[in-house]
Design goal:
This protein is mainly β and about 375 residues long. The protein has 4 helices and 20 strands.
C-alpha cells in the first residue's frame, strides 16, 4: 500500500489540497534575445559605436509566470507576473520594476477576461497583428517610445472575444497610470490616486478589432491625464502640473494575407495638450515573407510628421531571421533613419542622434524562447 509521510505542516497542507491543485496550472516562460550592434552618429561628435544593446533585440527579453485555476461552470482564475530583462547586464527594464511587463490577477471564461493590476493597454494590443517588425530595436517604437511601453499601473482591464474570436472589444481604466520615477516612457512618475482629485494621472484606453485568417482591422483610443509630476511625450518629458494637460492617441491598423505573405500597416494620430501643444501622425507599412519554415524576411517603412512644422522623420527597416528550431533563431537587422527640421529620432530604441541628422544601425543576434 502506498504510504505518504508528511514531516511538516506545509506538506500536510499541500497534500490535503491535492484535489484543488489538480485543477490548477502554472507555467514558467520567457524569451532571451541579444546580439551585437554597430550604429553611426551615436553622439554629438558623430562617432559610431559597436555595443550590445540593452532594451531589445528582435524582441525584448522577459521572464514570466502565468497560471490558471478551474473554478467550474467555464470560469477560471488567472494571473500573470512578467519581468522585462536587460540581457547585456542582467538589469530590470520598465522603470526598474520587478514585474514591469505585466503584473495582474483576474477572471475569465470563454469570451470575457477581467484583469486587475499592471497590464498592457489597448494601444499595445491594437498593432500586434499589423506591425510586422514589432518591438524590435529599429521600429516605430523609436519614433514614439510609448508604443512598446503602452502599459498602465493600477488598472482595470477587460477583453471580450466574440463571433468565433473574430471580433475583439477591450478597454482599460487606470487610477494612476505610472508609479515609477525612474524616468523615460515607461517610468514617468505620475502616480495619481490622489484623494480629492479623481482626474490626476488617470488613463483610459479602448479597442475594437475584427480579424480572420485572411485579413484584419483594428482601432484604439488612448488618453492620459497629467498631474503633479511629469509624463513622457515622444522626444522628452513634458511638465504636467495640471490635469488639463493630456496626451491622446488614436490608431487605425490592418493586415491582409496573400498566401503566406503578410502586408500590414497603420496610422497613429497623436495630440498633446500642454503649454506647448502639438499634433503628429505616424504611419507605417510592412511586409513579412517566409521563404520556408526556416527563413523569414521582414521589411517596413514608417514616417513621423508634425502638423504646422517642417519636422519629420523617415525610418526604413529590414530583418532576416533564420529559425534553427521552433524556439531558437538567428537574425540580422538593418535600420536607417533620416530626420528633417529639429527632429532627433534615433534609429534604435532609446538611442540618440543630433537634430536633423541621419543614422544607420546594423545588428546581428540570437533569440531563444522557453
Amino acid at each position: 500500500m502506498k504510504k505518504i509521510v508528511c514531516t511538516a505542516a506545509t506538506l500536510i497542507a499541500a497534500s490535503c489540497a491535492g484535489n484543488a491543485m489538480a485543477q490548477s496550472a502554472i507555467t514558467i516562460y520567457g524569451l532571451v534575445d541579444t546580439g551585437v550592434e554597430y550604429i553611426t552618429n551615436s553622439n554629438t561628435a558623430g562617432n559610431s559605436v559597436v555595443k550590445m544593446p540593452s532594451l531589445t533585440g528582435s524582441y525584448p527579453s522577459r521572464l514570466g509566470f502565468k497560471g490558471s485555476e478551474d473554478l467550474g461552470a467555464g470560469m477560471q482564475a488567472i494571473f500573470v507576473l512578467e519581468a522585462g530583462l536587460e540581457v547585456n547586464s542582467g538589469a530590470m527594464n520598465q522603470g526598474n520594476r520587478l514585474f514591469g511587463r505585466q503584473s495582474y490577477v483576474g477572471l475569465k471564461n470563454d469570451e470575457n477576461t477581467l484583469m486587475l493590476g499592471r497590464q498592457v493597454n489597448m494601444t499595445y494590443i491594437a498593432s500586434l497583428k499589423s506591425d510586422v517588425i514589432g518591438p524590435s530595436i529599429y521600429s516605430i517604437g523609436s519614433m514614439d517610445p510609448y508604443l512598446p511601453n503602452a502599459r498602465s499601473d493600477n488598472a482595470i482591464g477587460y477583453l471580450g472575444n466574440f463571433l468565433g474570436n473574430t471580433v475583439t472589444v477591450g478597454a482599460t481604466y487606470s487610477f494612476g497610470r505610472d508609479t515609477s520615477t525612474a524616468g523615460g516612457p515607461s517610468a514617468t512618475g505620475c502616480a495619481g490616486e490622489v484623494a480629492g482629485d479623481a482626474a490626476t494621472c488617470r488613463q483610459y484606453t479602448g479597442l475594437i478589432a475584427y480579424d480572420n485568417k485572411s485579413y484584419g482591422i483594428s482601432g484604439s483610443y488612448d488618453k492620459m491625464n497629467g498631474g503633479a509630476g511629469e509624463y513622457y511625450s515622444g522626444g522628452g518629458v513634458i511638465s504636467a502640473a495640471s490635469t488639463d494637460s493630456t496626451d491622446r492617441r488614436i490608431t487605425v491598423n490592418g493586415f491582409v494575407m496573400l498566401g503566406d505573405v503578410k502586408i500590414g500597416g497603420g496610422l497613429i494620430n497623436r495630440q498633446t495638450l500642454t503649454t506647448s501643444n502639438s499634433v503628429s501622425n505616424l504611419g507605417y507599412l510592412g511586409v513579412s515573407y517566409p521563404f520556408n519554415s526556416m527563413w523569414v524576411a521582414d521589411v517596413q517603412i514608417s514616417r513621423l510628421s508634425f502638423s504646422g512644422t517642417s519636422n519629420s522623420t523617415n525610418l526604413e527597416v529590414a530583418r532576416l531571421t533564420y529559425n534553427l528550431s521552433k524556439r531558437t533563431a538567428l537574425y540580422a537587422i538593418v535600420g536607417h533613419v533620416t530626420n528633417a527640421g529639429t527632429d532627433a529620432v534615433s534609429a534604435e530604441a532609446a538611442g540618440s542622434v543630433n537634430a536633423g541628422q541621419g543614422q544607420t544601425g546594423i545588428m546581428t543576434g540570437i533569440r531563444h524562447t522557453f
